[in-house]
Amino acid sequence: MSINNANEIIIPRWFDRHLHLREWEMLRQVLPCTLRQQATGAVIMPNLTDPITTIEKAQAYKKAILDLSPPDSGFVPCLTLYLTDQTDPEEVVRGFQMGAWRAVKLYMTSQAGQGGTTGSAHGVRDLFGRYKVLEVMEKHGIPLLGHFEAVEAEVDEFDREVVSLCRDLIPLLKAFPNLPVVFEHVTDSRVADLVASGEYENLYATVTAHHLLLNRNDMFSGGMTPLHYCKPVPKREEHRQVIRQYVTSGHARFGAGTDS
User: Fold this and answer.
1) Could you tell me which of 191, 244, 260 has the C-alpha nearest to residue 16?
2) Are 43 and 16 in contact (CB under 8 A)?
3) Spatial CA neighbour of 114 closest among 149, 146, 86, 152
4) Gap between the Cα atoms of 199 and 230, Å rounded
5) Strands, DSSP E only, in 45-143?
6) For the segment 111-136, what is each residue's pLDDT rounded down to a tens digit?
7) How many CB atoms are located within 10 Å of the residue 11 CB?
8) Buried b (16+ CB within 10 A) or exposed e, 220-254
9) Do residues 12 and 83 make contact, with C-beta atoms less than 8 angstroms apart?
10) What is the pLDDT of residues 96-115, one digit of tens each?
């Protein structure tokens, strides 16, 4: 990356660590945008209408993406497996070794089946019950990409990340110290501080451009602004400034994931 002046940054070809291409017409609209950004590839999220829960689904989705990519684009889609309460540990390893997926994506769901973000209703209701899957992932070095937000209605919207950090993530990191874990689209500085500290050597995070630009006031400027509402929601300005500092300093534990 180079900076020509105060208003211009030149980024060479890069890799998007968190991308939603969706499907059908949306896929045909979003993929060209990614290609125009000169991305060499991307980690593709699996929360489709019919989630990517099997090797066959992953292979079919990858084919659909490549069929729409120009032959000279060089774009490499890295598929992910959607983790559910029914996921078979052996299927996780088999798909990884075959190259069907490069990582496993965690969405958490309430006991009532209410997810915390788009397409998350099929996610995990009992994270501790998935430890057999996490054991084989740690053994084979398969990364876990987590949307770590508490989904219970009684949890304050602006505390969902930090509640999940304490309740879900830290016990997981202690149980599986060699498991690569990515905290997706971090917005809370308390999470970012833990990532940056290196206390857990296999913990990383992705950051979106919009979470670097917006704080929670932007959602309510002149009334509710729907385009600025996203999950996780932007946080206080103090959180944004901390995360911006980690990103602009080139901290190696933080990577770009546009979240489309």
Assistant:
1) 260
2) yes
3) 152
4) 29
5) 76-82, 103-107
6) 777 777 776 678 888 888 899 999 99
7) 10
8) eeeeeeeebebbbbbbeeebbebbbebbeeeeebb
9) no
10) 999 999 999 999 887 777 77
Q: Which two tokens stand for residue 234?
A: 């932007």
At 199, is the pLDDT very low, low, confident or very high (cuts 50, 70, 90)?
Answer: very high
The C-alpha atoms of residue 187 and residue 182 are separated, in whole angstroms, by 13
Give pTM, 2 decimals.
0.91
Spatial separation of the C-alpha atoms in residues 211 and 237, rounded to whole Å: 10
Give the DSSP letter of residue 59: H
The beta strand positions in 153-251, using DSSP E, are 181-183, 203-207
Tokens 């211009």 correspond to what residue?
Answer: 8
Determine phi and psi for 145, rounding to 5 degrees.
-105, 115
Q: Before 226, cis peptide (omega within 30)? A: no
Q: How many CB atoms lie within 10 A of CB 47?
A: 21
Residue with tokens 């400027």: 221
- Report pLDDT for 143: 97
What is the sign, positive or negative, of the torsion defined by CA atoms of 74, 107, 30, 218?
Answer: negative
16, 168, 188, 259: which one is catalytic? 259
Nearest Cα neighbor of 216 from 257, 160, 164, 157 is: 157
Active site residue 88: no
